[in-house]
Design a protein that fits this description.
Strand order of the largest sheet: 2-8-7-6-5-3-4
Structural class: alpha/beta
Pfam family, one: Aminotran_5
GO biological process, one term: molybdopterin cofactor metabolic process
InterPro entries: Aminotrans_V_dom (IPR000192), PyrdxlP-dep_Trfase (IPR015424), PyrdxlP-dep_Trfase_major (IPR015421), PyrdxlP-dep_Trfase_small (IPR015422)
CATH topology of the largest domain: Aspartate Aminotransferase, domain 2
Low-confidence stretches: 481-520, 527-560
Number of domains: 2
Strand content: 5-15%
Mean pLDDT: 86
Bound molecules: pyridoxal-5'-phosphate
Radius of gyration: 25 Å
GO molecular function, one term: molybdenum cofactor sulfurtransferase activity
CATH class of the largest domain: Alpha Beta
Protein name: Aminotransferase class V domain-containing protein
Length: about 550
């Protein structure tokens, strides 16, 4: 099936299964994708025709829940192409909880080692939730600044500078399968390389698949357990839209490393003595094979209603889309179209209107790029527009994107050209993560706008967003000599919106004597292409005609 044929199938599907998506164009699938109508109906029907109890009890409703949990665990492993002989799956709240579970286990085990800690390495493209693990290492961590550094370390672990006293000691290397900022996909061979490195026998790998799994066939990773990561984490709402649960897939051969954690809770312990001088307990995790790995790691009552919904979600997803391979081809085609359209946006004076952040610019290649794109808009005078303004204007016109640091501190500051001292300067100037930060500082943006696509995105979504960007942010008249462009220009302006090389992006702002520097240009608002359905049924907060500039540009402070 060609991408075009598939697209028309999805257009039809959208009307039937996603009526709740008809108000606006949803472009934040990287945040959460959208659930299908059949999933909600199927789940509701099961909830009102059966009686589900707490699976820790033994009565019939409890057993029904327990059976559902077992079946869905197996079903989800099957969906990922992971054999239950080789892998176990632990239900958690979300990807962050999965990462934290692994990190807690390593900290507890690390305390038993000679130097009392484990080593942790992570890639600079990692999500904040991966970065935070370093705080459990008592300073023994290293951030790999690029792929080549990882390759060098894997080849010569002893030689590489990784802030590690003993390369053979206990270690964990974590990285994202896909950057949640740029959508870049990272090499999947690193787990195998680490496993087969003689010097890294104590080092385990954690793959953060939260962003990757949304549009990637995970069977590519799990079909050969020897090539699979030891631990892989997921946020399942990013794949199915609902329910809001996560999973940690553990390679059974490596699972014993998680059995040594100290904490126990209801469900993960087989016996506890609370009184007396020497209270004791027996964790289920340490009693393999009597207990399965997941029984020692799932503290408390599982979200069994959500797991019921997950079973429905998998069935509906497979029925609607067939396989992740078709989704991957479809989203790859769409993101490439979006990228090409953005790269082609130019002001009348010939300057690019959009800076796309990309290290490979290979958007049509699904082994290198997922379905997200990070960018900033640039005025015809050469200054960056505030990403917060861009998001707000887009939102008012019914286009739902995300902007800011998107929880990817390393990716943001390396691609935007920040050095560590500049990050500190930004903090001292009052910038911080989140929606109230300062969007442009000293001429450099502190974040990006991210558009991300999902299985049910269509060509129409992409085209209308490009249309919106063009009609809103692209100058059709040459404003070369306007006061705005005279006070704020990038002397070495990129010759191509897609040339992300930092050297060509060092912003040097020309100052007109007697005027204050304009680091953040206010977008001049022109006609906003309001979608026809919004015109029919305006929502509170959504304007149905052109937008008054004062509401759109009075955003965040800019600082020099
Ligand atoms: C790559 C990546 N890792 C981790 C997370 C954290 O996911 P959650 O907030 O569901 O724990 C996200 C969320 O966007 C992500 O994209």
């Amino acid at each position: 099936m060609t991408p075009k044929e598939y697209n028309s199938d999805v257009e039809a599907l959208r009307q039937k299964e996603y009526p709740h998506m008809s108000d606006g164009v949803y472009l934040d699938h990287g945040g959460a994708t959208i659930y299908a109508r059949s999933l909600v109906e199927g789940f509701a029907s099961k909830m009102i025709t059966n009686l589900y109890g707490n699976p820790h009890s033994e009565n019939s409703p409890a057993r029904l829940s327990g059976d559902v949990v077992d079946q869905v665990r197996e079903k989800l492993l099957g969906f990922f192409g992971a054999s239950s002989k080789e892998f176990d799956l632990i239900f958690v709240a979300n990807a962050t909880a999965a990462v934290k579970l692994v990190a807690d286990c390593f900290r507890d085990l690390g305390e038993k080692t000679k130097d009392g800690k484990f080593w942790y390495g992570y890639h600079k493209d990692a999500h904040t939730s991966i970065v935070g693990v370093r705080e459990l290492t008592y300073g023994q961590f290293h951030c790999f600044e690029n792929d080549q550094e990882v390759e060098d370390w894997l080849q010569y672990p002893e030689n590489a500078f990784t802030n590690r006293q003993n390369p053979n000691g206990l270690g964990l290397f974590a990285y994202p399968g896909q950057s949640n900022m740029t959508g870049r996909r990272l090499p999947l061979s690193w787990s195998y390389r680490a496993r087969h490195s003689e010097s890294l026998q104590g080092t385990y790998t954690l793959l953060d698949a939260a962003a990757l799994a949304m549009t990637y066939p995970m069977e590519n990773i799990f079909h050969d357990p020897d090539r699979a990561p030891d631990f892989t984490c997921f946020s399942l709402y990013k794949i199915f839209g609902f329910p809001d649960v996560g999973a940690l897939v553990v390679r059974k051969e490596s699972g014993h490393i998680l059995a040594l954690r100290k904490y126990f809770g209801g469900g993960t312990v087989s016996m506890v003595a609370t009184f007396g001088d020497t209270p004791w307990h027996r964790s289920k995790g340490l009693q393999a094979p009597t207990y399965k790995l997941h029984e020692g790691l799932e503290d408390g009552t599982l979200p069994f209603h959500s797991i019921l919904a997950l079973g429905e979600a998998i069935d509906v997803h497979l029925r609607l889309y067939g396989s992740m391979r078709t989704i991957s081809a479809h989203t790859s085609y769409l993101i490439d179209q979006l990228y090409r359209g953005m790269a082609g946006l130019r002001h009348a004076n010939g300057r690019p209107a959009c800076h796309v952040y990309s290290e490979n610019r290979d958007f049509g290649n699904s082994s290198k790029q997922g379905s997200a794109i990070a960018f900033n808009m640039i005025s015809s005078g050469g200054g960056y527009l505030s990403y917060t303004d861009v998001e707000r204007i887009a939102n008012s016109a019914g286009f739902y994107v995300r902007s800011g640091g998107v929880c990817n501190p390393g990716g943001i500051f390396s691609l935007l050209g920040y050095e560590p001292w500049m990050t500190e300067r930004a903090l001292s100037a009052g910038h911080h993560c989140g929606s109230n930060g300062i969007s442009v500082l000293h001429g450099l943006p502190t974040g990006i706008v991210r558009a991300s696509l999902g299985a049910m995105s269509t060509r129409h979504d992409v085209d209308s967003f490009l249309d919106f960007l063009r009609t809103t942010f692209v100058d059709t008249a040459d404003k070369e000599n306007s006061p705005l462009s005279a006070t704020s220009t990038l002397r070495s302006f990129p010759s191509d919106a897609t040339l992300g090389r930092r050297a060509t992006f060092e912003p040097v702002i020309d100052i007109v004597p007697g005027t204050r520097k304009l680091e953040c240009e206010k977008p001049r608002i022109r006609r906003i292409p309001i979608l026809s359905h919004l015109r029919r049924a305006p929502k509170p907060g959504l304007r149905s005609s052109s937008l008054p500039a004062k509401n759109l540009t009075g955003g965040l402070p800019t600082i020099r």
